[in-house]
Amino acid sequence: MTIASTLAPIGENRIGAEWWRSAVIYQVYPRSFADANGDGIGDLAGITAHLDDLVSLGVDAIWLSPFYTSPQNDAGYDVADYCDIDPRFGTLADFDRMLAAAHARGIRVVVDLVPNHSSSEHEWFQQALAAGPGSAERARYLFRDGTGENGELPPNNWQSVFGGPAWTRVADGQWYLHLFDVTQPDFDWNNPEVHEFFTNVLRFWLDRGVDGFRVDVAHGLVKHEDLPDHELSDDPAMGGGEHVAPYWGQEAVHDIYREWNAVLREYDGDRALCAEAWLPTVDETALWVRQDEMHQAFNFPYLTTKWDADDLRAVISESLRAYPAVGAPATWVLSNHDVIRHASRLALTEDTARDGGIGPRSTARPIPELGLRRARAATTLMLALPGSAYLYQGEELGLPEATDLPDEVRQDPTWFRTDGERYGRDGCRVPIPWVADAPAYGFNETGASWLPQPAEWAALARDAQEGDPASTLWLYRTLLANRRQYDLGAGSLEWLDGFRDDVIAVRNGAVTVVVNLGSEPVALPSGTLVVASSAFEGAELPADTAVWLLAD
Ligand code: NOJ
User: Fold this and answer.
1) How far apart are the C-alpha atoms of 393 and 458, rounded to whole Å?
2) Is the pLDDT of residue 240 over 90?
3) What are the pocket residues of ligand 1 if the criterion is a CB atom closer than 6 Å to any ligand atom?
4) CB neighbourhood size of 456 (10 A)
5) Short-list 339, 378, 347, CA closest to 364
6) How far is CA 63 from CA 67, 209, 218, 239, 340, in A?
7) Is 216 tagged catalytic?
8) Is the pLDDT assigned to residue 233 strictly greater than 80?
9) Average pLDDT over residues 85-109
């Protein structure tokens, strides 16, 4: 089969119509996607081997979570070398092959950039430890003397996002800041050397041909210059909460993205930056995507919205106001590698911390059928919205959270740093099933898997869904094909009146979308059915179901 490239011609001036304004971007979590060498951890060659499956799914781009050299204390978000590939994932040649194969199929490739912290195994941090207090080497990170009579107390009361204190003391008595794991020291972004280092990293990957970067902890790089104590929040996670910590959303962080925006503009082909910035509101998040900063920001206020029609209406309206107001597209996302998969989350009966996970001892146990039904309806709504949407690998199979992982296999630092109080994110990171009747469900040929796959996943394997028009895989394919056909990503939304409050009804171009979030059926307007999130009979839409209709 020959596959023509559908990428826009290089250098074409497409302001206002850039690919990232309407793209559906599929998140590949490399260690759990496909494992070509059979060691139990996915790899780049595995991604290359499955690109045609992503073409047939119908996505426009992939975003890859980190594959760089790393001790893997935070699944690769602890980078020891920003310009090389961890041997677990392959080599730079494997990366180039994967990139070329993706581009040949018209799929763009976004890589993950982790600029808030490095691994403690990064050569700069090793040099900082060796060089001692007051050195230029230490000035690349946030080393400080302690407080208390002999400096035995940390410089301030900041807590790590993963639990426990955000400061660790080194042998000579100084302390260093790590907003995440102890093996993830934070850089000092007041240091010009750090700026220069990262613009070189950007160029390294841009020169190789990547289409953009997802920027990790994009709201946290700059800390308040006084490093003041702050009132601790019940939710130590990244941003949000009542008391916004003095390391999220500091004004000077925006200068960094203006600098990077200028670097990207030197390159052709609409390269893009996407902010991972967990901020409480859409309006705050929109500050990251002003004209000369980033191009997209994840819409976490949307992701965290409950299955409630009023709340969803509010966040969708706010998003379609706030992002375009600064010249950016709205984005939409329901799942990623840090949150409970939406096929489970939407059926939770009580709040759990966002990255708290679900485990054998959790009191909140989602009902799988309800979760899947709502997840399918939620995705049917999301993929009708104008802007760019993110999918997380496995959601096209309707995968639920793996809720019964035994304690001894857990790897998320959150689990260790909270002494098992928060299960953490392992449950959404389990290797995905490709083939029902194969070792590790076709994740590889050896049957090895870095996290055990639940037995129920055999029925959800991709090959088991291939021939079933009622499957979640077919739903996603149908949604994506029609989203493309009717150009919904570039469309605009009109709210339709005349429905109950617990029903969402909108029109985007030719497509009318009705979502029933209530418990009673609702009469559908006339129109030709394009797709339904769950099968039903008659002219009434059942609870937790969404449809796309074409006007008569
Ligand atoms: C956000 C990433 O998505 C998450 O997985 C990681 O643990 C933290 N940033 C720290 O890098």
Assistant:
1) 16
2) no
3) 74, 77, 114, 180, 216-217, 276, 337-338
4) 13
5) 347
6) 11, 14, 16, 23, 19
7) yes
8) no
9) 98
